[in-house]
Design goal:
It contains 21 helices and eleven strands. With 430 residues, the protein is an alpha/beta fold. The chain has two domains: 5-147 and 312-382, Periplasmic binding protein-like II (D-Maltodextrin-Binding Protein, domain 2); 150-300, D-Maltodextrin-Binding Protein, domain 2 (3-Layer(aba) Sandwich). Strands 1, 2, 3, 6, 10 and 11 form a six-stranded mixed beta sheet that branches.
């Protein structure tokens, strides 16, 4: 049993989701055969393949032909181009609450209360319904959630070095130095994808500054030159010391997220650990020969001070951009536990749907991660890059993501804080 599994499952199995099976199936719609839809989302590779299993089941039930388009990591850029052409996808998945707020304010989304409101109300907790709403109107269905407070490790490296998962960030930094000094870099870092660095920062900031200050920073009610931001940057520089990164910062900035996962579970491994969300499991099982729970272990992102629920979450919300009977049916289907169960059974997926039983997940690691999201209740926080305007937090190659990439190699705390503050002011406006 991995470090995250036992205690979390014991707590979460007291919740309804551990015993509740799927609720009544949401009717996907009748008389839709021959209709066509386009669905756009960030997923590619293994994740795309598994999501397409969900779409194929919808097609079998309804006769609706669904074309899937991968947007890449820059959803705003993809949608901006398609909107300029006057041909948005029928259904898009938005990976940031900030994007949902923006598109709803720009009247680019179809309100869902009369389409899927009842299904969402029966299958989602108030926190997730609120995240899908703007001004009290439902616009998004959070089909996929993510626990982004996880560190995955090579079990064989840990056994060889005689080390165990740490419980504190100080312990993590000490472990990283010990591993690096023994000849195995501690971390593979997918720094080419700037969102991974934003998730590093978010986890450290939530633990160091606390949820109250986290919310203030996300809302731009304190500046990015605040002492709490600088303290977090100093801590990030200590944990990700160049000496403990596989290949150093330069190599990290040339490595993508999926590549960083493969590095840890290659033979021989290029590093002992990789930080990211539950979706790492899909890369491990789909692109490496490592066995989950055998060669690959996982532990919660360590605490600073007193341990407590501190989960940085992510997710993907389905929104309707072009109204049709087939699109309405797909939105209702995506809000059902039946749709979630298909990807859950394939692995590398966590659903916020409270009527999806934990038994739907294929292994103990997946069940424990899903349970940790349930255990967090309403106290989870989305990554700061997801909560801020897309121009600052949600777009690769600019804003927070680019500045943190520069910080990984430059490591100047004051300069980085000033750059972040300047970019945030520009994105938030007056």
């Amino acid at each position: 049993m991995t470090a995250v599994a036992g205690a979390v499952l014991a707590v979460a199995c007291s919740a309804a989701a551990c015993s509740a099976g799927p609720g009544p199936a949401a009717s996907p719609g009748q008389g839709l055969r021959g209709s066509r839809l386009e669905v756009a989302a960030v997923w590619s590779g293994v994740e795309q393949q598994r999501f397409e299993l969900v779409l194929q089941a919808f097609t079998r039930q309804t006769g609706v032909s669904v074309t899937y388009t991968s947007t890449g990591y820059s959803v705003p850029a993809f949608l901006a181009a398609r909107l300029a052409q006057g041909r948005p996808p029928d259904v898009a998945f938005l990976p940031q609450p900030g994007l949902l707020d923006r598109y709803a304010a720009e009247h680019l989304l179809v309100p869902l209360d009369n389409i899927a409101g009842a299904v969402v109300a029966s299958n989602y907790s108030p926190a997730w319904r609120d995240l899908g709403s703007v001004g009290g109107t439902l616009y998004g269905v959070w089909f996929k959630a993510a626990d982004k407070s996880l560190i995955w490790y090579n079990e064989n490296v840990f056994e060889r070095e005689g080390v165990a998962p740490p419980g504190t960030v100080d312990g993590l930094a000490a472990l990283a130095r010990r591993l690096a000094n023994s000849g195995t870099p501690a971390f593979a870092v997918g720094g080419r994808d700037g969102w991974t660095l934003a998730d590093w920062f978010s986890n450290l900031y939530l633990r160091l500054a606390g949820p109250g200050r986290y919310d203030l920073l996300a809302a731009h009610k304190i500046g990015w030159t605040d002492p709490s931001v600088k303290a977090t940057l100093r801590l990030l520089a200590r944990v990700l010391d160049p000496h403990v990164i596989a290949g150093g910062p330069k190599a990290a900035l040339a490595t993508g997220y999926t590549g960083s996962v493969r590095q840890v579970f290659a033979a021989p491994p290029a590093a002992a650990m990789v930080f990211e969300g539950d979706f790492v499991a899909g890369i491990i099982s789909g692109q490496t020969r490592a066995g989950l729970g055998i060669d690959a272990g996982v532990f919660p992102f360590p605490a600073i001070g007193r341990p407590g629920p501190a989960v940085v979450a992510g997710g993907d919300a389905a929104v309707l951009m072009r109204r049709s009977a087939a699109g309405d049916a797909l939105i209702r289907y995506l809000a059902s536990p039946q749709a979630a169960a298909i990807w859950a059974g394939a692995g590398g997926f966590v659903s916020p749907n409270i009527n999806l039983a934990l038994s739907a997940y294929p292994d103990e690691i997946s069940r424990s991660i899903a349970a940790s999201v349930l255990e967090a209740g309403d106290s989870f926080r989305f990554s700061l890059s997801d909560l801020t305007p897309a121009g600052f937090g949600g777009t690769e190659g600019q804003g927070m993501r680019k500045i943190l990439q520069q910080f990984l190699s430059g490591r100047d705390v004051n300069v980085t804080a000033a750059r972040l503050d300047q970019a945030a002011r520009k994105a938030y406006g007056p």
